[in-house]
Each structure stands twice: as C-alpha cells, then as structure tokens.
C-alpha cells in the first residue's frame, strides 16, 4: 500500500525523492500522494459495491483545492461543515448535487449560500436550525432537502475530543426527539425530510460501536418510512480509523460487510463522509532538524515545524511515525521532537525512539495528510507551510509557502494611533 517508500535518494513519494522537493522549495512542507488518495477512495468505493451509495469526502480533513479536485474527478461527493468549505468545494469542481452540509452552527449566510448552490442535503442538528431553514428557504422561494443528524448515544471508543455521538455531545438529535421533530417537518412548507444522518466520531478502530450506532439509526430510517416519510438517504458519517502506529484497523470492506444487512434493510441510498481514511496516509510533513539539544538527561531534536504546522500531537497526544528522509533504519535516539513555538505543549513526538538525525537532516512525519495542514495556524507569527502534490514522477507546489507579508494581510493601523 506504500506510496512512501525507501529507494533511490532515500524516502520517496511515488516516483519522486522527498529530498528533491525540500532542496527545491525548503521546509516545512506537506507532500501528498495522488496515488494514495485515489487508492483510498477506490477501496471505499469497492467496499460499497452492490449498494446504491455515494462516498463523500470530508473537506475539513484536507481542503487543499488540488486534493479536492482529485477527489471530485474520481466522482466523490463532498461533506462540508462551513460556508468556507462550500466555497472551496465549488471552486474545486464538486457537483453541488453531491454536497452534504453538516455542523451545529450554520449561519443564515451559510444556509443561503448552500441553498443557492442547490446542495443535496442539509444535515440538520437541532429544531432551531430546522425552523431557520424553513424561514430562509421560504423567504427565497427555495426548497431545502434535509436529513436529521441523530445522536445514537454510542461511545465510539476514541479520543474524547473526536467523539461526537454520545448522550452528552453537542452534536445531533436524540433518536426519540428525532421522531417528534420529523412530525413537525411534515408541516413545514419549504423543507423536505429525505434522509437520516449520523456521525459518531473520528479515528474509530473498532467496528462494534459503528455497527451499534448504525443499527440504531437504521431503525429510525425504517420507523420514519413506516410513518410515511420518503427517506431516500441514509448517511452513516465518516470516522473510519487509519493505522498511525500499531493499531489494528478494519478495512473498508470489513467495515461495510459488518453493517451491510442494516444498510440493505433501509432500502435507502447510502452516503458516507470519510476524511481521515482518504487523506490521512496520503500525506507526510517534511521538517528539518534545526538544532540538537540536551537538557539534563533528556535529548531534544528541534525542528523547523511546530504545533502551528501539525497540531495533532499537542491537541490529541496523537502519534505520528517519524522517519529519516536520508536513509532507512539509521541509528536511533531516545528524544522529543519539538517545534520552535513558545509553548511547552509544542511537540511533534514525545519520549520516542527517533532517527538519530544531525542538524540539517530532513525528517518525515508520516500519516499527516488529514487534519495536518487543515488545522495549521499562524501562531507565533509563523508563515504556514507549503503543500506539494506528487503524481507519478511529477510534482507541483499546490499551495505556496506563506511569506511574512501574508502574516499581516488585512491588518490596518487606524489613523488615531
Ligand atoms: C469530521 C467529520 C467527518 C469526517 O471524519 P473522519 O474521521 O475524517 O472520517 C464526517 N462527518 C462529519 C459530520 C464530520 O464532522
């Protein structure tokens, strides 16, 4: 499966040596593999074979236009969570009839933009949002197609920050309340209830919680149909986990096969919203060791990428494999890989056996294609990294490295200062 492997010139992505990319444009740099994106998407497609389905790509995992264009060309739909993501998805060429819009806080402007594009579905998260949709659609003479995002109250067994389907979560509507709400929608003039949606969390590595949640939500689809609602879509959300270190993760086929009877029973078109599974292992972050440092008994490698470039280790204690770009299996060093940001929480790898890299050596943080650049910030006034796409033996910059001027773009010093 590896589109990142050791060969001529060290660690490579498809037909390109990663060292060549950094020699040309510097670091830190995210590098994405076209082949890996395509492979992950096709695996999902194949897993669903025999079912009427649409694989939507969760834009928030990695919203770069070229990543989006890749997936749009393969036929994917898009799962968006903001007006900004709608803008990106439209620029990248997604068919609006394949766009679904989730999120607990859709504003009037965002709803209007999505109605204007005639997107496939709003995943509605509350009674108030429904009322707002009815009002806005009515005002503009539009119809809003909705699915109810239900909260099946299942613990997905993942990190608390990325669990979304438990009783106390801000996301979704409890299943019993969804039935009440559905009856209310029946009386709305501009809102059509045609789907049920769920998404219980991210980086889920066990099938059982998924299966339990899907069974509950599928039950709601059937109950709504019994009550005369024309439920045509069942959106099972995203969240399929990937292997970051030694996790045993189900393949898409194992996952879908396990829930296939529930899906078939609904008779609905199945939507899914995968982000991490599609983009996660399709990207690496290249970073250079700026300094080596010892502090008491502890060793540090200080990199030119920090938490502003890759937040996952600081935010979720996430594990990313660290590889030497120069050579495989070089001697190792027990150390922390830290960034230059002025925060103790700024680390990329903590208490780990790392490549014993010299100052100036290039490292690759593996599995950073999802929730890597998309969570990057300018904290500490650090320009954001460049992004590169590799396809075969070709590569191109798909987002320029930011310059200092980008850091103050839009800032104004008023005359009274
Ligand atoms: C974030 C999100 C996803 C994607 O989750 P992954 O774990 O990246 O697959 C799907 N659906 C919704 C509603 C989301 O918020």
UniProtKB/TrEMBL annotation:
| BP term (GO), one | lysine biosynthetic process via diaminopimelate
Q: What domain of life is recorded for the organism?
A: Bacteria
Q: What's its EC? A: 4.1.1.20
Q: Which residues bind substrate?
A: 276, 312, 316, 343, 371
Q: In which pathway does it act?
A: Amino-acid biosynthesis; L-lysine biosynthesis via DAP pathway; L-lysine from DL-2,6-diaminopimelate: step 1/1
Supply the Pfam families for this chain: Orn_Arg_deC_N, Orn_DAP_Arg_deC
* Catalyzed reaction equations: meso-2,6-diaminopimelate + H(+) = L-lysine + CO2
One of the record's GO molecular function terms: pyridoxal phosphate binding
Q: Where is the active site?
A: 342 (proton donor)
Q: Which UniProt keywords apply?
A: Amino-acid biosynthesis, Decarboxylase, Lyase, Lysine biosynthesis, Pyridoxal phosphate
Is Amino-acid biosynthesis found in the keyword set?
yes
Q: Looking at the keywords, is Ion transport present? A: no
Q: Which residues carry this modification: N6-(pyridoxal phosphate)lysine?
A: 60
Ranges of residues in domain Orn/DAP/Arg decarboxylase 2 N-terminal: 36-279
Q: Quick one: which residues bind pyridoxal 5'-phosphate?
A: 239, 273-276, 371
Q: Write down the required cofactor(s).
A: pyridoxal 5'-phosphate
- Give all residue intervals belonging to the Orn/DAP/Arg decarboxylase 2 C-terminal domain: 30-369
Subunit structure, interactors included: Homodimer.
Q: Which HAMAP family match?
A: LysA
Protein family per UniProt: Belongs to the Orn/Lys/Arg decarboxylase class-II family. LysA subfamily.
The record's function comment reads: Specifically catalyzes the decarboxylation of meso-diaminopimelate (meso-DAP) to L-lysine.
* Name of this protein: Diaminopimelate decarboxylase
Organism of derivation:
Rubrobacter marinus
């Amino acid at each position: 499966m590896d589109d990142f492997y050791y060969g001529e010139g060290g660690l490579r992505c498809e037909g390109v040596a990663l060292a060549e990319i950094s020699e040309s444009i510097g670091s830190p740099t995210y590098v994405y593999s076209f082949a890996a994106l395509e492979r992950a998407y096709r695996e999902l497609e194949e897993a669903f074979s025999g079912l009427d389905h649409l694989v939507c790509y969760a834009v928030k995992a990695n919203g770069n236009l070229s990543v989006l264009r890749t997936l749009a060309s393969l036929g994917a739909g898009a799962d968006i969570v903001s007006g900004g993501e709608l803008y990106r998805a439209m620029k990248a060429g997604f068919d609006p009839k394949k766009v679904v819009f989730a999120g607990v806080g859709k504003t009037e402007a965002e709803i209007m933009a999505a109605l204007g594009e005639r997107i496939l579905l709003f995943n509605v998260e509350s009674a108030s949002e429904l009322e707002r949709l009815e009002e806005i659609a009515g005002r503009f003479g539009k119809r809003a197609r909705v699915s109810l995002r239900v909260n099946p109250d299942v613990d997905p067994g993942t990190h608390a920050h990325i669990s979304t389907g438990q009783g106390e979560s801000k996301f979704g509507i409890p299943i019993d309340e969804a039935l009440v709400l559905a009856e209310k929608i029946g009386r709305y003039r501009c809102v059509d209830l045609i789907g049920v949606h769920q998404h219980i969390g991210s980086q889920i590595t066990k099938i059982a919680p998924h299966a339990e949640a899907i069974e509950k939500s599928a039950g709601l689809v059937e109950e709504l149909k019994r009550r005369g609602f024309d439920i045509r879509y069942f959106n099972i959300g995203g969240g399929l986990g990937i292997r970051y270190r030694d996790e045993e993760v189900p393949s898409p086929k194992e996952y879908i096969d396990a829930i296939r009877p529930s899906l078939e029973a609904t008779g609905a078109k199945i939507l899914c919203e995968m982000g991490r599974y599609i983009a996660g292992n399709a990207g690496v972050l290249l970073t250079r060791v700026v300094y080596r440092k010892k502090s008491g008994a502890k060793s540090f490698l200080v990199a030119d990428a920090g938490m502003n470039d890759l937040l996952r280790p600081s935010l979720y204690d996430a594990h990313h494999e660290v590889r030497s770009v120069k050579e495989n299996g070089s001697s190792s060093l027990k150390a922390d890989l830290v960034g230059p940001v002025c925060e103790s929480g700024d680390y990329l790898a903590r208490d780990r056996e790392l490549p014993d890299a010299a100052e100036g050596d290039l490292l690759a943080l593996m599995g950073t294609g999802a929730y890597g650049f998309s969570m990057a910030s300018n904290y500490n006034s650090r320009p954001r990294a460049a992004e590169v796409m590799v396809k075969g033996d070709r590569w191109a910059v798909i987002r320029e490295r930011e310059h200092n001027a980008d850091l103050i773009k839009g800032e104004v010093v008023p005359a009274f200062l």
